[in-house]
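Sample A.
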Amino acid sequence: QVQLVESGGGLVQPGGSLRLSCAASGFTFKNYVMGWYRQAPGKERELVASIGRTDDSAAYADSVKGRFTISRDNTKNTVSLQMNSLKLEDTAVYFCNRRYSYLTWGQGTQVTVSS
């Protein structure tokens, strides 16, 4: 069964950090470029970061560049997002998925940045 399960979200103050994790199953994880996405209330889902199949390349949205780091472990079928210097505008539900040929979206994990 194809599945994406996100975890690690929570409530954090501005300037704080969180590390999100995504466990993937049901497909050959190492063959796919993966991405982290987010959707804030009233806004469309957007791509935050993506990572190549062998962890050798990453790309970031301008809004998170220099603050977020995406990584993957092909031995564990996981992709992670380290988020530092969090801002109020980072508040959203965060999802992982393949960068292309999307799978059914998981539940996501809520990140709330608030003082």
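Sample B, a different protein:
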Amino acid sequence: QVQLVESGGGSVQAGGSLRLSCAAFGYTYCMYEMSWYRQAPGKEREFVSTIDSDGNTNYADSVKGRFTISQDNAKTTVYLQMNNLKPEDTAMYYCKTQRCRNWGQGTQVTVSS
């Protein structure tokens, strides 16, 4: 399986930026497609963005044009650049491997108005 370690969360004001990282360790087969999800208090976990090893990406409508997903050359670390953050982006952000359904522990993002 795969261990996922997220980092980069924090507290920012609306309009600010953060860059999340997700480092994957383990079975590379599982790392073909890696995604970001988020869960706000009292809400269900929701899809944010995904990238596969071919570089194909997809985004939730709510983050299109503001968030950018990318990966390192080794395809073992995935990044989420978040710009123009809004209070509604406040959530715990999780990394996930789609093939093996591994989840990280999450990193908290808090955006104040």
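Observation for Sample B: The longest strand covers residues 18-26.
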